């Protein structure tokens, strides 16, 4: 299974490609789409959509793992993130990817073992789980890889549960 993980944001949308074989996961590529604050919103969202479309065409993922929106105190930031998330989902939908959505807490729990983990712990565990020789940078790319690893774990658990149910 090839999974595209996305950490959405208007200024920075992290992406990561993870391939799974059995219980093993490995990173194939990762990066970040950066947009400029002074550009019109349509140009910024278009860049996110186009870049992710190129990533999908290059690496051929079949599944998407995307972080859901965290509505903290900054509503304006949440709206901008939601717009970037929408642009990313449009690119993935056009390519026919199956969507998995996860809260930041679910991703941290799946990768680190604690929903309260900080960014350094997430980056460290992503490096460890994916057997990288360095921590992925920027943080947005590490978070995207973490989303993909979370999806791989959830998908594996779902398949095992379905097999068990079929046997009983």
From TrEMBL:
It catalyses: Endonucleolytic cleavage at a junction such as a reciprocal single-stranded crossover between two homologous DNA duplexes (Holliday junction). Coiled coil: none annotated. Binds 2 Mg(2+) ion per subunit. CDD domains: RuvC. GO terms for cellular component: cytoplasm; Holliday junction resolvase complex. It comes from the Bacteria. HAMAP family: RuvC. This is Crossover junction endodeoxyribonuclease RuvC. The gene is ruvC.
